[in-house]
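User: Last request for today: this protein with uridine-5'-diphosphate, please.
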Amino acid sequence: MARQFQRTKCRSRLLMGGLLLCFICAMLMGIALIVESAGLRKVSFQKNEVQSKSTADHTLCVLVPFRNRFEELLEFAPYLHTFLNKQNVKHKLVVINQMDSYRFNRASLINAGFLETRSQCDYIAMHDVDLLPVNGALSYAFPEMGPFHLAAPHLHPLYHYKTYVGGILLLQSQHFEMLNGLSNKYWGWGREDDEFFVRMKKAKLTLGRPGNLTTGYRSFRHIHDHFKRPRDQNRFFDQFEKTRRVDKETGVSTVKYKVDSVKDLVISGAPVTVINVLLVCDLNLTPWCLQAEDHAWYNKSVLHKNAPSTKIKSISTATAT
Ligand code: UDP
Ligand code: MN
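Assistant: Here's the final one, the structure of the complex with uridine-5'-diphosphate:
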C-alpha cells in the first residue's frame, strides 16, 4: 500500500515537473525570439535611481496609443495629470486615436504622435492607457542618462521578463529620433516593444529602471479587463516570421498616416489633446494589417461554411483584398 502510494506520488511529481518545464520552455521560447535573432547575450541594465531633479527646463509629451478604451481614458487622464503635477513635471497628455479600420498598431500611433508633437516637448513617455503608477517614487523626470523604463519587469503586475520595455517608457526626443522610433510592421498585439529593446541595445543606449521599490508588483494598477479587452494575437500570412527580427526598414521616418482632426478636451480637470489619425498600410509590405474579416479568404470560407479559426498562425497562401 505504502509502495503504491509512493509510486503514485512519484508519478504525479514527475507529471507536475514535466508540465512546469513545458510551461517555462514555452515562455522562454517566445521571449527569446527577437533577442536571440539580434545575437544578444548580456543585457546591461543600470539601476537609474538618480534622476534629474530639475524638471523646469523640460516638457514631457505623454503619448498614449489609443482605440476604443474610453472608460480607461476617463480614469487615466485625471489620475496621471495629478500624479505628474505632484512631481512638478511639465507635461502634455496626447491621445493618438486610431480611426482607420486596420488592426491596432501601437507603434505607428506613437510614431505619428511623436511627429505631431515634437516641437512642444523634449522628451516623451510611450504610455499605455490602462497602466497607472501607484507609488509616488516612480519618477517621470527627464531621462538624462538614457531611456528610462518605468513599468519595469520587477514592478509590472503582469510582465516579468528581463528585456521587457513596454507599458511605460520614457525617452529623450533626440534618442527616439536617433533610433528611428518604432517599427511600423506590428499590426495586432505585441512584440513592437521587444523590437524596440533591440534598437536601444544596438545603439548602445543605457536602459535605466527604478530601483527596488517596496511596493513590488503593486507599484502599478493595470486597469485591463481581460474579457472586455481581449488582445488581438492573430498572426496572418508570414507575420510571425517577418516580425521576429529587428526591422531595419521602417520607423518614425517612414510612418504613413493622415491626421483627420485634433480635439482639445478636458477630462475632470485634465487637459488632453486627442489626435484622430488614419494610418496607411502598405499591403505589399504588411498584408497582415487587415482585420480577419477583411481578407478575401475569410468571406469565401464563410460562404462555404468553413470559416477558419481566428487563431490562425500563418496563412501563406491567402491573398489580401
Ligand atoms: N490599445 C488600445 N486599443 C486597443 C488595443 C490597445 O487603446 O484595441 C492601447 C492601450 O493604450 C493599451 C495599449 O495599447 O493600454 C497596450 O495594449 P494592451 O493593454 O492590450 O496590452 P497589454 O500590455 O495589457 O498586454
Ligand atoms: Mn493592458
